[in-house]
Amino acid sequence: EIVMTQSPATLSVSPGERATLSCRASQSVSSNLAWYQQKPGQAPRLLIYAASTRATGVPARFSGSGSGTEFILTISSLQSEDFAVYYCQQYNNWPPWTFGQGTKVEIK
Amino acid sequence: EVQLVESGGTLVRPGGSLRLSCAASGFTFITYEMSWVRQAPGKGLEWLSYISSSGSTIYHADSVKGRFTISRDNAKDSLFLQMNSLRVEDTAIYYCVKGGSYWPFDYWGQGTLVTVSS
After folding, report:
1. Residues A51 and A10 sit within 8 Å (Cβ to Cβ)
2. pLDDT score for B34
3. Which of A28, A80, B35, B46 lies at a C-alpha separation of 20 to 30 Å from A88?
């Protein structure tokens, strides 16, 4: 089973600032990596897939990078609606499909 | 517009059974793989079950193998999760999700809450 590890667990950022979230896989997942955003009381929403492709309707301030075992999600200028929990997930080696434990982006 | 609407979540006693349903619309259900993902209160996301478009290939997480069974009815655009021998630790929101294999989980239902408690 591939273990996904996200860091940091919590990221405190001021509105308008840049946020950088990390995700590491225990073995290579190629570019088969997705990022999801989850707001309180809501279902997760797909943001990024194939490591760097934005899903439909996702603002350009969200970008993903990386391949193999190291991945980054960047939010270039945080808006109020971006404060949420972000999960990475690999879909290269399955079953199981595995998620990271999440990074909470909170207002500083 | 893709819509996934779960139902069937409720309070159930440990050892009990429950069947969750998911009604899909807005896409050609028969051509897509589907999955169930759950989230325990205050915790992260856990993939549970996968079913291929035809229903011929099924996988379950070790945590539910032998207790949960995923199925689908392509004629009715519906996905199901039969849950037996429920445990307190199965308490979670259960999400019906479009996707699996080499594709991300691109659409999620709103979730249905299953509470296992005596």
Report:
1. no
2. 98
3. A80
